[in-house]
């Protein structure tokens, strides 16, 4: 009988972990289908032959950054394109962050409302993982105030879940 309880418990936790992982894969892949990431190739041309840019005027004319530090000077022709790509990528990351936080919060709330223990735990943990993934993706770009808001949302969701489920 003891062996059956252990097996049953392992099966339940395997299901919970499977749901948590697949739920977050589902969230992330669905978001990538619905909202496309900036395509690097749309910002940077992939020429087979790249002409040398040897003076400041030609460099600036192509949106490049001229560097006088090298003995003869050096042009980074992708300077402006890189800035535009970085802005687009940050906007994309911010939007994905918001979506994952919302999906995570909804999952946590669903976890508190479900009567089935396996599903309740899976949704709650799936929501926590979604909040974690969202934070990892956007943490380096978020300003300090937004980081506090992110942490407040996560902490509030977890406290609310604890109170609703175990009070």
Plain-language structure description:
This protein is mainly α. The protein has one domain (2-44, 79-166). The chain has six helices and two strands; from the N terminus they run H-H-H-E-E-H-H-H. A two-stranded antiparallel sheet has the order 1-2. Strand 1 (65-67) and strand 2 form a beta hairpin. The protein is elongated and about 80 Å long. The two termini are 32 Å apart.
Shape category: elongated
Radius of gyration: 24 Å
Mean residue pLDDT: 89
Q: Give the count of helical stretches.
A: 6
Total strand count, please? 2
Q: Please state the oligomeric state of the protein chains shown.
A: single chain
DSSP strand (E) fraction?
under 5%
Which spans have pLDDT < 50 for at least 5 consecutive residues?
none
Short description:
This protein has 167 residues and is mainly alpha-helical.
Outline the secondary-structure elements.
Elements: H1 2-34, H2 40-43, H3 56-61, E1 65-67, E2 74-76, H4 79-113, H5 117-138, H6 144-166
Antiparallel strand pairs: 1-2
């Amino acid at each position: 009988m003891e062996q059956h309880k252990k097996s049953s418990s392992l099966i339940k936790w395997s299901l919970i972990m499977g749901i948590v992982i697949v739920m977050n894969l589902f969230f992330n892949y669905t978001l990538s289908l619905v909202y496309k990431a900036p395509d690097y190739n749309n910002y940077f041309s992939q020429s087979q032959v790249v002409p040398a840019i040897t003076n400041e005027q030609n460099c600036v004319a192509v949106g490049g950054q001229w560097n006088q530090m090298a003995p003869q000077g050096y042009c980074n022709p992708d300077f402006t394109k890189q800035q535009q790509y970085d802005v687009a990528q940050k906007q994309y990351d911010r939007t994905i962050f918001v979506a994952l936080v919302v999906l995570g919060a909804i999952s946590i709330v669903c976890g508190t409302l479900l009567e089935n223990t396996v599903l309740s735990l899976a949704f709650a943990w799936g929501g926590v993982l979604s909040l974690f993934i969202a934070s990892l993706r956007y943490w380096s770009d978020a300003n300090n105030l937004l980081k506090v808001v992110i942490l407040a949302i996560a902490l509030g969701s977890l406290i609310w879940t604890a109170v609703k489920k175990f009070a």
